[in-house]
Every structure is written in structure tokens, then in C-alpha cells.
């Protein structure tokens, strides 16, 4: 299963949240969608690989909000997180006329169909972002995983 989200988001105490366009400010977890809840739904389908790609900021701006109540995740394994940026940092976008996309998406599109282990594919994205002069010193992609088997996005279903 693959889940991709591009938009406003944040991380607070190791939990990631996606912010709907109509969420009141300042953002609090109860107005947002928890990525961990999405992963719980993915795990319930007993997938062989869960890939979460978050093209969002991970900076937390509202220290007065409490964390949302979320059941602990099962120790499922074979879960990979590809974050557009490192913890407590912002993710940058490219503007091309009316169209905009994240730096992360620019390089993800280049590598996503490679026939290699998903973490190695994401390593290639990380290296390309690291060499992009527009974000050098501002944005560093992060990869976290519990991959216990060599899984690729090109594996047969």
C-alpha cells in the first residue's frame, strides 16, 4: 500500500499530522488527520509493504496543544516513511506558472519506478535533493523504515 500526501502538515512528538485546508488556526491535532491512523488502516489490510510519503513541513508551531489520542501501532514491520524534510524543518516548493510541487516530488517522479528496494529508491531521491542548490542547507529528506524484506514498488502483486 502506498500513501502520498502533499500539503500542509507538521510533526509533534513523533506524530505526523496533515492539515486540511479549512482547519482553524492555530492548528491542533483534533482539527487534523493523523498519519498514524492512516497507517493503522493500512496495517489492517495486512499489506506486504506500507509506504508513507509525506511532502509536508514537519515544523510544529503550537506548543499549547495536546497530542491526539491514538492507539499504538502494531509492530508490523515492512513500513517505510519518506519525509520530504527532516524533523522540525520546512519543505520547499517549486513554482512553475500555475503549477507548483515540492522539491521532494520533483525527484520522487524521477526515481519511483526503479526496480530496486524501496529504501534504495528513496536513497536516490535523498541524494538528488541533497545536491539541489535551491534547498542546500534548508531541506534534507529523511527516511525511516522497518523493512524486514527486500520490497520494491515494482514487485508483482
Please describe the structure with a list of short key phrases separated by commas or semicolons.
157 residues; alpha/beta; Rossmann fold; four-stranded mixed β-sheet; three-stranded antiparallel β-sheet; 3 helices; 9 strands; 20% helix; 24% strand; MALT1 protein; Caspase-like_dom_sf; Pept_C14_caspase; cysteine-type endopeptidase activity; Caspase-related_regulators
Structure characterization notes:
- The protein has 157 residues and is of the alpha/beta class.
- Helices cover 20% and strands 24% of the residues.
- It is built from 3 helices and 9 strands, in the order ββββαββββααβ.
- The chain has helices spanning 35-44, 103-111, 118-130, and strands at residues 2-6, 9-12, 15-18, 33-34, 50-55, 79-83, 93-96, 99-102, 142-145.
- Strands 1-5-6-9 form a 4-stranded mixed sheet, with helices on both faces. A 3-stranded antiparallel sheet has the order 2-3-4. A two-stranded antiparallel sheet has the order 7-8.
- The longest helix is centred in the last third of the chain and has 13 residues, at 118-130.
- InterPro entries: Caspase-like_dom_sf (IPR029030), Caspase-related_regulators (IPR052039), Pept_C14_caspase (IPR011600).
- One of its GO terms (molecular function) is cysteine-type endopeptidase activity.
- This is MALT1 protein.
